[in-house]
Known about the structure:
The protein is of the alpha/beta class.
Amino acid sequence: MPNLPAFTAQQPLFRAYDIRGERQYFTIDFIAALGEVFADLYHSRSYYERFSKASITNKTHTNPSRNNQAYTTETTAETTAKTIVIGFDVRLGSDTMAHMLADILRQRGLTVINLGLITTPMMAFWAQKYDGHGIMVTASHSHKNILGIKWLVANTSPSSLEIQALYQQLHSFELNKNRPHNYSNALNISLTLDSNSHFNYESAGSPKSNDIGAIIGTDTAISTDLPAELIATTYIEAIVQVFNTIDQCYANEHSIGNSKINDRKIDRHCTDSNLIKKHQSLALIKPISQAKLDLTLVIDCMNGATSNIAQPLFERFCQRVIMLNDRPDGCFPIGNPDPTEPNRLAELQQTVMVNQADIGLAFDGDGDRLMIVDNSGKVINADHLLYLLAQVAVTECPVKAGATAAAPEVLFDIKCSHHLPRLLSKLGATPIMTRTGSSLLRQQLQTATQPTIFAGELSGHFIFNDGYFIAYDDAMYAALRLLHWLTHTAPTLAALAKLMDADSLSYAAPLSTDVWGEPRALVAPYQLTDITKNLPVLISSADHYLPFNDANTNSCTFIEHLVEYCQYLQHVVADNTGDQLLTQTALFTQSISCKCFNPEPPILKTVTEAQQLLPAGTLLSRIDGVRLDFAHGFGVVRRSNTSNSLTVRFAGDTMDELLAVQTRLVALCRLFDEDMADQIAAIQPE
């Protein structure tokens, strides 16, 4: 039997966005090999050119999060930047993995800054303070038995090709037999803890620099453990400065000292006299560092990496903060740290209502996903949340001297609502649909040729790229931007309603009482219910993951067949009318490039049949699977980047429209896979 390449069993861990999978595959030898490969990576990026199919040699990118400094991937023997920051999440074994990787990098001559228990966005924040290089040992929102690793090179997340290149590098790796034996024992103990084991971060401390030093020993290599208080304080004060800057810029832009008001802002919103008065009084507002927001918050940390930082951060800005599940616990006793899971926010919703709070916030396991509950206890639809945060970015976008009048771009992923493009256009932004994946969003932001101030996706990743802070999907920062906007910079409620397409007949005027019947003033800070009730109604399914292993022996996949067939239908509907017969196979073969349909290609008999599946005017997007936009709804079917499944979502303006979209998706999929069609037919709307 031939010998398999090294670490064949670990190949599935190398996914589209990161390294992630069952803890049993994170063996001592595998982590040691990863450490050596990461050391090669941070010493020289030249190996990418040897393994990636995409040519990235001598290509220069502009990274807006690095003050527009350019970095190159040209082949060099060594790079000058050799400082790596390393952090870990609360999962059992993440801390020991991080320390092992840090030790290997240190032995290879790299300077390592140990950040300890931290969120992934905070790792990115600290990486930017050094050379832009960082490693985060985390499996994000996944099940407790899943481990993972994310990393940055020059403030940039790896592409899927670069992740596969890292795996290919492992094939030529030979284990370093001189690594400390005691460390292997420690890692085995940490990674094999059962699901009922608990690790007490409060009593053990984070990072455990003394304990780990006893395990691995010390030598002359450089490794620094930053104090936890310094890590948190520096991050918090940086965000304080962000809001001081926003307030100052906004006050200057809307000053009325010489009877001037920035035309762009006023025209975009309205000419309401109340808005003018608000701008006049803005200069009287104390900087956010001096006056806390008059809000009551409830925060659910889901026992994840935000547990130690969320309370001091939000108490710095808000008067009243109520915490839930804020004890770091890698066993995740209340369930997966994923705020997007159905019914996952029930405790947060109840706590918001019981305490009559203004808003509820939920963060995932590593702090890069955000979900929000409004003041009535209702979970804000992720499509609506993306729109609100995009409006924050547009409203508070800094105006630079000599800047062009081009509308800033806002990115959203292919699974988002069909209402978003129209709503974003009314804000004065250019809507851009992208493939799904937060790392893909970050890469697109870094390589964009037009000003792109915000990006978000349905899963709760939101990235502000307006120059105030790092361009990373930081859930806590995004939440604070929304709170600040509701309190300080949002236009009047009437103006907001106009931006949301609410006409005089459908406009729901704000009530003079709150959801509990108590009198309230109709001034900032606004309640989310006053805003979201004027957003378009959306009836949708959840983002469903349907198990699917494309075992088709043909050269094309299920998704490729679906794409080709939708193109064929568009061709039929555009070039034919009425009940004209479509009996010639030639029309099908001329319309598509795929030659492997088996058994017979699904030929339609009449144009009417084609129009029932794909009505005239239906928009087809092929950037990530198949997305069909109809007059009053949309549907998307795509291959998951992280599992053997298809992701499916559909929506309509009414229940009937949703069912019509679902029926079309089922009919299209049934042409190629009966089981998948049945799974889609069984999906219920939220």
